[in-house]
Amino acid sequence: MSGYARWAEIRAEQVARAGGEDAVEAGKKELLAVAVGHRLAEVRRARGLTQQQVAERMGVTKGRVS
Fold it and tell me: Are 62 and 52 in contact (CB under 8 A)?
C-alpha cells in the first residue's frame, strides 16, 4: 500500500463534510453566481456605465442590477 490517498476517497470525505452532493452543488452554483456578478461589474465599469444606466437599458431597477 502506498502513502497516497485516492482522489475518490478524499472527495467522498470532503463531500460528506460539506453536507452531501446537494450541498456541494449548491455551493458551486453560489460561487459561480458571485464570480459572474463580479465579472459583470468589471465590464460595466470598463465601459464607463453606472448601475443606474445599466438598469435603465435593461428596464429594471438599480437594485436589481446591484
Answer: yes
Determine whether 53 is exposed, middle or buried from the number of CB atoms within 10 Å of its CB (0-12, 13-18, 19+).
middle
Residue type, 6: R
Cα-based angle 28, 41, 39 (whole degrees, multiple of 5): 40
| pLDDT tens, residue order, the chain (66 aa) | 578 899 999 999 999 999 999 999 999 999 999 999 999 999 999 999 999 999 999 999 999 988
For 18, residues 6+ apart whose C-beta sits below 8 A from its C-beta are 24, 27
User: C-alpha cell of 2?
Assistant: 502506498
